[in-house]
Amino acid sequence: MAGANARLSREAELMTTARTECASARQRGLPAEEAATASGRWLVEWLAPAKPDEGPRETLPDARVTKLGEALAPHSAARNVSWFFLVDESPEVDSFSVPAGTVLVTRGLLQLTPSDAQLAGALAHEMAHVTLRHQLENLAQLEELACQVRRYGELTSADAASRGEKPSMPDSLSTAMADGSLMKNNASTLTMAFGKKRQASAAQELDADAAAARTLHAAGFDVADFIALLPKFAATTTPLLDVSKRVEALQAVRASLPPLKPSAPAKPAAPVKKPKR
């Protein structure tokens, strides 16, 4: 029993060392080139065919989406972002954005939002994820986790070798951790095991909602229309967060905003002067 306890204590110390060594990598953030590369990779994964015999899903510009996105962009807190808006020709109801500033909405979402104000809410929410750097934060978490797994494999192998013992875990697992192949093959499983991922995702949704509400209000849209969209959206997807919590939080943000400025009345058309004969 004493030997087992000592081994567990030593493994805990090695994991703590791995976490400490890898924390600095996340704190430094990601270089701009890496963020751009990640954006391209995520877009490819998003548009990947659902079946092997199908081609990538088609994306097209859409006049309505582009017009709304361009109306929101000047009121977003993001700076130095080149916004680009596309429609994914999928019947599913979904939306997506990447750090480079590309926002995609599906044809299914467009059909769900005949109101421009509701569609503007969906766009503003995705733009807020970019503004708040949520995708980069999640990528940094994954990079940190990969570093921890790799470093822990190296430390446990070295620790066992220093005592002339075999690692407590199978050699194949220790090797897979140390050379990074474990993360490559099991990234999604390990990410879900990263402790606070689900809670962080829920917090990100609330933060994006709040930022979207401020952008919508500044652009002249009533946040109430975005609030009305959420139950419709949740009914077609598996939300990260209970819709009632999102609605409650958004109602609080809306109540804190100043009254919307009334739209300027349209100027009457100038009378057409008849040419003199």
Can you put this structure into words, describing what you see?
- The protein has 277 residues and is mainly alpha-helical.
- It has one domain (1-257).
- Helices cover 62% and strands 5% of the residues.
- It has 11 helices and 4 strands, in the order H-H-E-H-E-E-E-H-H-H-H-H-H-H-H.
- The chain has helices spanning 2-28, 32-46, 63-72, 107-112, 116-131, 134-162, 171-178, 181-192, 197-218, 223-234, 243-256, and strands at residues 59-60, 84-88, 95-97, 102-106.
- The protein has a 4-stranded mixed beta sheet.
- Helix 5 (116-131) packs across helix 9 (197-218) and helix 5 packs across helix 10 (223-234).
- The longest helix has 29 residues, at 134-162.
- It is elongated.
- The termini are far apart.
- 28% of the residues are buried.
Biggest pleated-sheet summary: 4 strands, mixed
Number of domains: 1
Task: Kindly state the number of beta strands.
Answer: 4
Question: What would you report as the Rg, rounded to the nearest angstrom?
Answer: 25 Å
Distance between the termini: 112 Å
Overall average residue pLDDT: 78
Report the structural category.
Answer: mainly alpha
Bulk shape: elongated
